[in-house]
Each structure stands twice: as structure tokens, then as C-alpha cells.
Structure prediction request, 623 residues.
Amino acid sequence: MACQQWNRTCHAAMPLRPRAPPPARPRRPPPHSTSAQSHLFHTAVPAATTLKQQRQEDPAATSRSYAALLQRSAAASDPRLASSLHAALLKPGLLASDQFLSNHLLIAYFRALPRLRRHGLRLLDEMPRRNAVSWAAAIAGLAQGGRPREALAVFRWMRRAGCPPSEFALVSALNASSFVGGTHARQLYALVLRLGFQSNVFLMNAFLTAMVRHGKLADAVRLFECACLRDIVSWNTLLAGFARHSSCAQMWSLWLRMVREGAGPDGFSFSTVLSGLTADMDMAGGLQVHGQLVKSGFGDDVCVGNSLVEMYMKNRALEFGARAFAEMPRRDVVSWTEMAAGWLHCGEPAKAVGVLSPMMLDGIAPNNYTFATAANACATLTSLREGSKVHGYAIKLGESSDVGVNNALIAMYAKCGSASSAHMVFQSMRQRPVISWTTMIMGFSRNGQAREAVQVFDDMVLEGVAPNQVTFLCVFSACSQGGFVDEAWIYFSAMADKFGVKPGEDHYACMVDLLGKAGHIQEAEELISRIPFRPGVLVWQALLSVCQLHGDEGAAKRAAEHALALEKEDPSTYLLLSRTLAGRHNWDGAGKFRGLMGDRDVMKLPGSTWLESMPESNQACTA
Prediction:
């Protein structure tokens, strides 16, 4: 009954209305540089010249030979060869009389996207006759070339021209509709049903993909259950949809059903379910899938192995993750990067840095994600020496212009105490998004260079980069260190008025800390009273901390009373008030609060300091 209702709903949808796109003037294709395509061009052009000489002898053979050359051009995505063959075909007038050659040229142009997209559209517009293959080639080329709206426009053009859509054209149109919002996909599938193609599994899979990409999981499940035929792509599409939209329980249920019904999961299935279990932190399910993976024979797949390593490392199963990595028959850059990120995630930054050397000895060049991970590991170790080596490798391998790598390097240098090196990296960046500015402000602030941090913020605003919530936290921290009360009030007032950033509890706590350190405790209390929401423990503890600094016993007691009303088990409140009272030589009051901690079983966590020397075997670079 549900399936009948689903079909009636799809039949009720209106079909797409066609509208022909205007032809565009073709642009001269830029020269190609790859050696393979250059060789193909220089061997195919003489062949085209020979064909010109032989066309009088055997026109049919000439047509087949041109078609073979066009197929080679399409396979190589060579724009120069496609244009040369087009010119060769225009002179004898073969295109006007040979539909077969016109379609092959059309395919060659659309395979050379995006440079020759307009050439293909113009050729389609100028063709005296177009058949189903012509339209399908254009729609597929645009859809695969990242032009979904243009692909749908050509589909409407085809409908307006009166050409019945083929199953190939419908599949491409449905794929294009999956990247476009609205009801295009439903309208197209209604047309599929009216044309009697409901048993075509490729069309069903294309519509299922569109539903998943649009987040319509309930509709996707209903379509899946009502489908006449299902293949492994159908299962994988729904499985990936559940994993992408964080429906891990449904994903796991579908996986169990897939195994139970003998659907035969492939490498994509295993990678998808392992990634979903990683996000859900489901170690038990991951072990079960690992066992099924061993039995299935897909253990040699690199993508599956990468997903398996990620699952174990994200669940902090270091031994299992390292063993899965060691047993991989082939490793790519993702494998090594995942291993480095796993070591860092599990609190082993030295081993994360140590991944670089064996990785390069294995012939794998690190990418930007690898360098960003290694730089973060060096920041955790506060190892300026190893961080400089990572920076050198990034420059040598051409990854020093990547924004993510540069942000990681700025943070690394700042945490290692070299704000000047961090600023040099920042200055060398061609593109500096808000996260880069924020990281630089934080770096100067962390190293006690408050004036430089405020200057970077001012430069950021002058360059038209809008600060976010984290940026304001960093600049408030810098103002607090430098005692820049007036500048902080200007920035705080501009948060909502100029930049549309609503101050949160962290921002108010920073302002209270800033005002208190400057000796304006009464002004800090007035600010707290104007907070448009109930102040949290963080705000009151900020006030309590500055009261200890200035010995304001009355304000400290008021702040502690509010903080304890919100959280009685936080030892920071008791200790701050006790130290404030002790600083005023109120030993009885200080002892009272110390005793109150014992009565309420409030425990202070002991502080710790650690030093770690990097072993020679774990260094990023060895001589």
C-alpha cells in the first residue's frame, strides 16, 4: 500500500519545463602541458591529415577512422585534439551529413570540460539533427563536469525539442538534480514512472542518491523498500546516507540486514560502515565488521584499511590500530596521515612526528594534511627544533602555501615561544582567512606581546576580514594582559553593533577579568549586572580571581556566594576565596572555607609538570 501511494505521489509531480540555453561564443582552448596528451596530439593530427587524402576513396572507412580519433580525444580529455579534429571535419562537410561523427565530437568536447563546455553547447545548437545520443552526451557531460544546472537546462531543451528522453539521459539528469535543491529530482522520477522505466535499477539508484543528498532519508528508505530491483549500489547509497546524516543506529541495522540477506558488501560498503562506527565511537561494532572484513577478502583494499585504522585510533585502541596499519599490504598518503593523526589523538605526539621519516623512506610524499598533523604534534611537544624541520619539509615539497599547513605552523611556533617565526609565516601567506588572523592574535597574546596582538586585530578589520567569537576572545585576552581598557570597551561595543557577534559568557568573563586586573572591580560588577542572561560560574570566578589580586574581600564574598549557588563541587571557588581571605590576614575565614571543602568532599586535583625528550628514532628528520 505504501508503495502504491509512493508511485501516485511521484506521478502527480509536474515534469520539468524545457528552455533552450543561448549558444555561447567558443573560447580558444589553452595549450596543454602533459606529455601523454602532447604525444597523442602530435600522432593524431598527422593521422587526420592522411584521412583527408583518403576520404574520396572510402567515405565509410574515413568516418570510422575519425570516430576512433575522437574516441581517443575523449579518453584523453585533450582540448587541442578535439578542436583540431573539429576543424578537419568542417572542411569536407562531414559533420552536416554524419550524425555518428557529430555525436562523437560532442562527447569529446564535453569530456574536455570545463574549457570546451561552450564549444560543446554551440555544437549541439548548430547540429542539423539531434538524436537521443546527442542529448544524452550533452547532459552527461555537463553533469559529470560539475555543471548540474546547465545539465538540467539542456534536459528541458531536449523536452522542448520533442525528443523522448532515453534512460541514459534520465540517469544523468537525476544525477544533476541531486546537486540542485528544489523538486527537480521528484519531477524527473515522475517522468521515469510515466515512461515505464520503474524497473531500471540505475534510474532508481540515481533518484535514491538525490534523496540522500537532499537529506530526505525517510523518502529514501521508502523508495528503497518499494524498489523492484536492488543492487549493491542501492545498499551502499542508503548506507552512506545514514552514515553522512549521523543516523548510526539505522546504518548499523541496515548493515546487519545487508549481511543477513547476502547482499555481498564490497569495499565501499566496508569503508562506509567503518567510518560511521568511527563517528559513533562503536568499538564493539567495529570489531564485528573487522571479522566480516577478514572473511570477505576485501582486507587488501587501501580505502578499507584506512577506515579500519581510523576506527581503531579514534577509539584509542592503539595496539589494534598499529597492527591493522602494519598488516596493510599497500599504504598511501592517507594511511600514513591517519596513523600520525591517530597517535596525536591518543596522546602520543612524539610518535606522530616520527611517522614522517618512515613514510618518506617508503616513497610516499606527505601532503598538506600530513604536515598540518605533524606541526600540531610539534606544538603539543613544544619542540621548536622538530617543528622547524617539519616547516622545512613543507617548503621543500611545495606545501608551504597551503592555508591549513600555515595555520598549524603559526600555532606551533607560537606555542614553542617563537612569535617572530609565527609572524613570518603569517606575513608570507597570500590568503589569510579569519582563522589565520585569530591564530596570529592568539600567538602574540600567548607570548606576552599584547600590543602586537591588538595591532594584528586592527589590521584585520582594516583589510575587511570579519572577526568571529574566538577572535574577540583572543583580543580581549591580549587587552587584559596589556591593560588596554579603552580599546577593549571599543571592541566589546563593536561586537554586536558592527560585526553582528553576540557576546557570550566567555566574552563577559574576559571583560570582567580585564576590568578587575585594571582595578575597576566596581565597574566589573556593574557589567555583570547588565548581562542579558544569568551569569555562569565562569563569570563569577573571574571576578573572584581579580578580587584576590586586589584584596577586595567584600566583592570576593559576593562573587563566591553566587558561584557556590551554581556549582558547589568546584574546588576553584573555595580556593580563590580562601586565598583572598588569607591575603587579608583573615585566617579564621580562610580556614573555614578550607574545612568546608573537606565537609563537602570537594577535592583539589594536584598540579603536574612534565618534560619529555624526543628519542632519536622518533625524530621527524634523520641525517
Q: What stands out?
A: Residues 234 and 317 are 32 Å apart (CA to CA). DSSP finds 36 helices and no strands in the chain. The longest helix spans residues 35-54.
